[in-house]
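Dear Dr. V.,

Thank you for agreeing to look over these. As mentioned in my earlier message, I'm a first-year student in the group and I'm still getting used to reading structure tokens, so any feedback on how I've presented them would be very welcome. I ran two proteins. I've put each sequence directly above its structure. The first is here:
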Amino acid sequence: MFIVEETIAGTEAAQIPKQRGESLLETAVRYVEERHWDVFPGTWLEAVDGVQRCSCGDAACPEPGAHPALPDRATRATGSAAVARRMWQAQPTASILLPTGRTFDAISVPETAGCLALARMERMESTLGPVTLTPDRRMRFFVLPGASVKAPELIRRLGWSPGSLDLVALGEGAYVAAPPTRFGSRGAVQWVCRPTAANRWLPDAEELIPPLAYACGRDR
């Protein structure tokens, strides 16, 4: 089980555990073994003239140290703990990326909308899967695969056009960066709702998109 070692003050639903004292290799292997998530290594951070730069070489990289290193990321993702171990032994500081569209999709919304939706879902006693917060202030809610296909029609049924809300469903061909991956000097990806035995079974998009869409509509 993933252990909470430090939290940021706030409501119970919005507390954000941090992982400490564990290598990226150990964490990647645990994602495979405990959650059966596929993983693949991304870019990493390198010190250049005292400044942390992305290994991709782009000084203006928008996701320094937290994006795929190679274009064929889908073929490199693995659900084998042994293979994951070899990957991170080859590059111990590589970011941990999780492909979406396999064991889960992810719904990405702004942090402000995500916090509003979390409070609403807590009152409704809704079932939640894991949720991350990225340093660029995006919350990503893990749901069953298929959300990227269902999302546009679900949003239309709620009275919005899909392009009018800052709600993005990540499915096949996309990925999320997993804690404790760092975005350069901006900080690390953190858990808002950590993976536990209780949320091993993920919710469907139909359960989360209505409160998330409502929150995004309020946040415009």
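The second protein is here, in the same arrangement:
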Amino acid sequence: MTHFFRTAVLGSVALLATACSAAAAPATPSPAPPPPAAASGWSPAPVVPLPSQPPPSLVVDAPLPEQLAMGLVVLRYRAENLRIVPVYGPAALDVSPRIGHIHVTVDDAPWHWADGSGEPLIIQALPPGPHKVWIGLADPTHKVLDSKTVSFVVPPGNHHH
């Protein structure tokens, strides 16, 4: 062995032996654990099964006037107590924390579309005048759990979208 290596190894062994033979110092008390998620205003981390979950709800913002003036409807939304993901079917009902998607209907159309992206809804080329968009928060089997209707007016003007 080289002199440097032998000195480093022997020094480490001596340090380890000294540390092991020293009397254990009293442990300092550990800081208090953080408060539960519910007490702190946060929802639980979506990484463990939840034994019980509050009912899901939907929050939808009104479209911004600047975009409406251009003929563009941008609707931000969020689900509470449900994660929006593109997963469907009865087997997904057992996923915890709860998952789902949204259904969207414009102006009472007899049809709707489903979206599992969680991204804002962007609707363009609506004619000037009053409109409404219905958004339903649905479970993986398409059962609607909560819904909101947003009414707005697309003003007349230059619509470039």
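From my reading of the second output: Confidence is low (pLDDT under 50) at residues 1-25. The CA atoms of residues 82 and 98 lie 5 Å apart. Does that match how you would interpret it?

Kind regards,
E.
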